[in-house]
Amino acid sequence: MSRLTVIIPTYNEEHYIEDCLFSVQFADEIIVIDSFSTDKTVEIANRYDCKVIQRTFDNFSNQKNHGLQFATCDWVLFVDADERIPYQLQTQVLAAMNSEKHHGCKLKFPHFFINRFLYHHYNYVTRLVKRTECHFEGSVHEKLIINGSIGKLDAPVLHFTYKGLQHYINKKDSYAWFQAEQMQDKGKKATYFHLVFKPFYRFFSSYVLRGGFRDGIPGLAIASINAYGVFSRYAKLILLQKGLK
To answer: Cα 163 to the chain's mean position, in Å?
Structure first.
């Protein structure tokens, strides 16, 4: 029977980490890769039967790749501290591992916003992988590279992303700098066309094409903020191009 390692990257997650750890107790091994938290994150993690490894944060890919070095099981599930793996998804994870049909699986992430899950606002993200067949690339919105086929699991991850409106907007701005720097490193250029068309399309895709309008006011709000995130990314790339950061 296949065995599972769960890897959880953390930094100052004292309000979330315990519920996360409780939800992954079905795993054979749990590794917390901590970026030297200054709150009680490590203290809480040490109450559970898990490995706690501390490493200075440089980017998301390096952090998770470092955690992979300590994993000993056949499969690895990557979980963030503000995520929960409910029972229905646990059973699907174990079934996928034991079927050996794929080398990895994408998990479904409905957005949590204004105290509700938006089931028409979701993403599929690769999180479950065979340990020896994967590595991460990219400094933000890191991509998990897998040597083999990828399946999908339909039971949702409970992802409590919403910690207040200002936090959500600040998170978009923070990611936008990382993304702008990545685009600059790849030689990409931004124009004022990108500032208009790209955010508009993100809003239209999110709110209309993917049915976000069916999530009411929260669906409208998150589509608007996501469009702002795209605008912020290209605006920051223009600033970098002009040497104004």
So the answer is: 15
Give 44-66 pLDDT, tens digit per residue: 999 998 999 999 998 889 999 99
Query: What does 208-239 look like in DSSP terms, one character per residue?
Result: IIT-GGGGHHHHHHHHHHHHHHHHHHHHHHHH
Q: How many CA atoms lie within 13 A of 7 on its CB side?
A: 26
- Go through the chain and tell me how many residues it has: 245
Please give the residue that has the higher pLDDT: either 214 or 162. 214
pLDDT at residue 177 in the model: 86
Q: pTM of this prediction?
A: 0.75
Q: Which DSSP string corresponds to 35-82?
A: ---SSSHHHHHTTSSSEEEE---S-HHHHHHHHHTT--SSEEEE--TT
Q: Of the candidates 243, 209, 233, which has an alpha carbon nearest to the alpha carbon of residue 121? A: 209
The domains found in the chain, sorted by start residue, are 4-159 (3.90.550.10), 165-241 (no CATH)
Q: Quick: pLDDT tens for 93-146.
A: 999 999 988 999 999 988 777 777 777 777 899 999 999 888 888 766 678 888
**Kindly report the CA angle at 16 between 12 and 20, in degrees rounded to 5?**
120
Measured distance CA(156)–CA(237) in Å, rounded = 34
Nearest to 118 by CA among 214, 204, 200, 199: 214
